[in-house]
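Honest question from a wet-lab person: if I give you the sequences of every part of a complex, can you actually get the arrangement of the whole thing, not just the pieces? Trying it with mine:
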Amino acid sequence: MSSRSLSESSAWPSMTVLKLEGEGDDWRLHLEGEWSLSAIAQIEAQLQELPGGLHGTMICDWSRARAPALGTAWALLMRLHGLGSLEIRHSGDPPHFLQLLQKLAAERRAPPAAPEPPESVGWVGELGRSAVLQGRHAQGVLDFFGRILVVLGDAISRPRALRPSSLARHIYETGITAIPIVALIAFLISVIVAYLGAQQLSRFGADIFVVDLVTISVLREMGVLLTAIIVAGRSGSAFAAEIGTMQLNEETDALRAMGMNPIELLVVPRVLALVIALPLLTVIADAMGLAGGGLLSLLNLHIPLVQFTYRLREALAPTTFWAGLIKAPVFAILIAIVGTYRGMQVRESARELGRLTTVAVVQSIFFVILADALFAILFVQIDF
Amino acid sequence: MPEPSTPPVIQVRGLVSRFGAQTVHDGLDMEVQSNEIFGVVGGSGAGKSVLMRTILGLRAPDGGTVEMYGRDVQQLAAADRSALVQSYGVTFQNGALISSLTVAQNIQLPLREHFPASEAALDQLAELNLGLVGLAADDGRKFPAQLSGGMVKRAALARALSLEPKLLFLDEPTAGLDPISAAAFDELLLYLHSQLRLTVVMITHDLDTLFRTCSRVGVIVDGRMITGTLDDLLQNQNPWIREYFHGPRARGLSAHG
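Yes, you can. This is the full assembly:
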């Protein structure tokens, strides 16, 4: 009779849980020590060390196994199953659930093969696939935009479709509550621009042109762009998360089932609210930006406010203010549509909700900046 | 009355639970013995789920004590608390499966946390637990959103069983299931109860489940618990209990008698 301990080369040399004895057709497997679930790692490792290709009978002796668990007993059965054509018997007070496990093991079919990973199609294929996906995506957005237009068209004959109370709530949430942060950021940014500009311009004795720098940059670009980015972060994410959660709770399906249009109830009020709120916020941001520039000019460059306003009138073309403000509703539409569209896309899981909310914010900021670039080119071309 | 030979698994004494001015439990007593299936019933808002959350230590009682295995659950040190939590399994009303993980990963989640093992071993354990609750190994690869209601309940049970608890808490395990699935769940529960020698505490409104599985039932009425076997409760003269067991929804029950 040969006897060997299977623990010698294992990673847990202090714990022996298996001892195989015997030769030929006659084997005994002694189960010893801790057999609770907490020892699963040791047991698994030592089971793997059992030699394969055995035949004959094997008697598993449970008499010295402490607190055997379902999981560890199952691991043993699974391993013995793979050892070869053995007839297995259990002795020494085997655990009461062994029969249940044997029944499960007998019913067990061959482990299902993992689904094959999609065939690699090479980079040309990838390119084609993403082009098709983008195409479908664009189609989806277009479809969504069309549905919004249908509701708006409908509203001409049926103004109630605009949901005034819902609209008011969203104007409050996206507009009024955003005033403090928009005002503060516009003020601070214009102070920074004026300060850094003054450092450069004062070397040429051209301090007074700080006024041009601040007013043109704030009114044409920064007022509206900063406001749009803040609103995209605040409200774009809120739109996606609110509508996405409603999707998960089947609330949108409930609305549809009650004969109501989720686009009309959820999407259009948000889009309209933002189209109204964003230009107003932009005006506030413009005013705060000019105030910041004026204050810095007074304190840092000692330009009195009277001179600041005089220079301001000189610097501004009649169109400067409108060149900034006209972009606000466009940005608002982009932010609101991206946010609500992503929200409506949420299906199934909380992870989807988080992912699409993130996508909504990132994409709406991207589209805002892209649109801003297009506006810049357009305004130069038409000399606006 | 002589003391039972083994101490009760759960002993609740004089439990008081309040939400603002509203008192849900007012001196509730409850005792669950080892190896029984104990049903908890009560009207909507009677505080069944609150009771379960309190026993699990998820909510501090406003009065009274909750003991599990003879130890006050509110007074446990962190290490004992962790050991206690590992000794029971819980299923929640809606399954509470983590939606971003597959069913197999849900089952492996507590195992991974408490008993590090190889991936192969974890896969085997997931397969075992799926088998125990009558799900196919294939189902393990599905996400919770892809499962039917009955499968969600079974998957939640598989996850509750993964740490091999001796005590199971089930919150409305058959709610939302068709009668055939619900009956199958009853049989599964009875089978696991006998094979694994489990103690089960089950909140349920399903009278069929109560009659099929529960050895004793506690009814929460007016903030207190009236406990007895079903035969006792059928004879009980409390108006709410009479209405519950003899009301229009209870018609088929005579067949059980």
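Two things worth pointing out. The first helix of chain B runs from residue 48 to 55. Chain B has nine helices and ten strands.
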